[in-house]
């Protein structure tokens, strides 16, 4: 059911509502026909206890958490676009990777290239188990997959969106679309918010706008320091004859180094039409985000396709030559490996028709190098569409992480990716959104009840 401002709805018994089929209601795509009642314009300036700026994951969760603690609070979510929770909708391939099953706060912070120190305290107050528990209490069962990622059992992000929508309706949280904020000012212990369409007044603001340059510019004008934003979580563009014919091929545990830097990581690796992707690459792109931006995304990587030592591979090769020397390399792999990638390597080394016994020292060195030290030139990046993230944002030194309140302005709170906090892929960025909005909501609700 559409959530409308309490003092704007006129519903006399004689009024027959009109209906619309499959509308977008408060930014949600609805499958039901929604009654639309006549609205009367508010004569006074629109006043609220809390206005949340940003209709994404952090904004919605912060609004709901505040409403749970302060049931009579008047809360509004402002969203500049015509839809809400867009990133929730597409994350995890449309399944919504809501968090990651890491239950130790210190261990959890290791997945955050930026914000790891600041989040340790907050994670002691609200972590993945708390989020999974809240979802379960609100009718959403979750599951932990083998790699630790957590999804709704429904395998549909719509389950999460419906849960948030239901809670907004339950608590009377208003949502206004197409209201991008153009100015913020604080006077007489109240925040004044202007959009192109409306003027609003509120006691507290929760800023959860994600990577929005216009909002960062407003905050700069207010004295906040903004760490320059650069992309994070992206894939590497590579044009190379070895991998060009192999899109879709993956290996379960590769080690990847960015040459001439300190960065290396391991994990599943996927060959794509444009280069390489997968967790190993995405983790590297997050940790090295600033350095790779400075290099204009032109650099070299070295892949150990098996994450195996050169010594162990030489020992395996020696054992095979003794036991099965007459076997052709193309029919008998040195180690378990995708067959098409193995054949591509053999063709590259001109070893397709050789058996193990006939390998020369040069052949062996070449085979070990292509398996353990395979070098590629990266020329550019591509967005990882399941989880696009920015490195940069509000300087965390200017935020009190016990309350998520600005140290420069009273009753101005922050949550989610508007801060200079980001993580590797796997549900960690959502968890930072849930945690920071939860802590902000606790403080906001306390202030509302106090006043």
Tell me the number of helical segments per DSSP (H or I, 4 or more residues long).
Answer: 13
Radius of gyration: 27 Å
In the predicted model, the low-confidence regions spanning at least 5 consecutive residues are 1-26, 30-43
Q: Give the N-to-C terminal Cα separation.
A: 31 Å
Principal-axes shape call? elongated
Structural class: alpha+beta
Largest sheet: 7 strands, mixed
Number of domains: 2
Q: Averaged pLDDT, please?
A: 91
What is the fold named in CATH at topology level of the largest domain? FAD/NAD(P)-binding domain
State the total count of DSSP E strands. 25
CATH architecture assignment name of the largest domain: 3-Layer(bba) Sandwich
Regarding CATH, which class of the largest domain?
Alpha Beta
Tell me the strand percentage band.
25-35%
What's the CATH superfamily of the largest domain, by name? Answer: FAD/NAD(P)-binding domain
Q: How helix-rich are the residues, as a percent range?
A: 25-40%
Write the layout of secondary structure elements.
Layout: E1 18-20, E2 24-25, E3 28-29, E4 34-36, E5 46-53, H1 57-69, E6 75-78, H2 86-94, E7 99-100, H3 105-109, H4 116-125, H5 128-137, E8 142-144, E9 149-152, H6 157-171, E10 174-176, E11 181-187, E12 190-195, E13 199-207, H7 213-221, E14 226-232, E15 234-237, E16 250-258, E17 264-271, E18 275-277, H8 279-287, H9 289-294, E19 298-304, H10 310-324, H11 339-349, H12 361-372, E20 374-379, E21 381-383, E22 389-394, E23 399-400, E24 405-406, E25 412-414, H13 428-450
Parallel strand pairs: 5-6, 5-13, 6-10, 13-25
Antiparallel strand pairs: 1-4, 2-3, 7-9, 8-9, 11-12, 12-13, 14-22, 15-18, 15-21, 16-17, 16-19, 17-18, 19-20, 23-24
Helix pairs in contact: 1-6, 1-13, 2-6, 4-13, 10-12
């Amino acid at each position: 059911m559409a959530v409308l401002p309490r003092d704007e709805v006129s519903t006399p018994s004689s009024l027959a509502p009109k209906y619309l089929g499959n509308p977008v209601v408060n930014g949600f795509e609805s499958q039901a026909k929604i009654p639309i009642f006549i609205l009367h314009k508010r004569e006074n300036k629109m006043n609220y206890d809390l206005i949340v700026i940003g209709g994404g994951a952090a904004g919605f969760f912060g609004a709901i958490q505040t409403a749970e603690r302060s049931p009579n609070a008047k809360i509004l979510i402002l969203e500049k676009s015509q839809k809400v929770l867009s990133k929730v909708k597409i994350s995890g391939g449309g399944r919504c990777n809501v968090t990651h099953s890491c239950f130790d706060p210190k261990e959890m912070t290791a997945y955050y290239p930026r914000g790891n120190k600041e989040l340790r305290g907050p994670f002691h107050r609200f972590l993945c188990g708390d989020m999974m528990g809240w979802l379960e209490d609100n009718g959403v069962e979750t599951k932990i997959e083998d790699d630790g990622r957590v999804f709704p059992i429904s395998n549909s992000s719509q389950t999460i969106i419906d849960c948030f929508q239901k809670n907004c309706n339950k608590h009377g949280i208003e949502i206004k679309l197409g209201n991008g904020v153009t100015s913020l000012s604080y006077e007489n212990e109240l925040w004044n918010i202007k959009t192109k369409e409306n003027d609003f007044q509120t006691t507290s603001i929760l800023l959860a706008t994600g990577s929005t340059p216009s909002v960062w510019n407003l905050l700069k004008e207010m004295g906040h320091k903004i760490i320059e934003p650069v992309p994070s979580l992206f894939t590497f563009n590579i044009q190379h004859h070895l991998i060009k014919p192999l899109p879709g091929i993956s290996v379960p545990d590769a080690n990847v180094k960015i040459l001439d830097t300190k960065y290396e990581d391991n994990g599943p690796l996927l060959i794509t039409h444009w280069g390489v992707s997968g967790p190993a690459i995405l983790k590297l792109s997050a940790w090295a985000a600033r350095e790779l931006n400075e290099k204009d995304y032109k650099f070299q990587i070295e892949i150990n396709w098996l994450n195996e030592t050169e010594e162990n591979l030489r020992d395996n090769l020696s054992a095979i030559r003794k036991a099965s020397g007459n076997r052709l390399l193309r029919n008998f792999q040195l180690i378990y490996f995708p067959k098409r990638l193995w054949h591509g390597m053999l063709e590259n080394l001109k070893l397709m028709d050789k058996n193990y016994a006939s390998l020369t020292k040069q052949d062996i060195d070449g085979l070990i190098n292509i398996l353990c030290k395979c070098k590629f030139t990266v020329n550019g990046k591509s967005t990882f569409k399941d989880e696009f993230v920015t490195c940069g944002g509000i300087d965390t030194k200017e935020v009190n992480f016990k309350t998520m309140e600005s140290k420069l302005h009273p009753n101005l709170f922050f949550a989610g990716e508007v801060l200079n906090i980001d993580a590797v892929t796997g549900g960690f960025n959502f968890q930072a959104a849930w945690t920071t909005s939860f802590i902000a909501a606790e403080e906001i609700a306390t202030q509302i009840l106090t006043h």
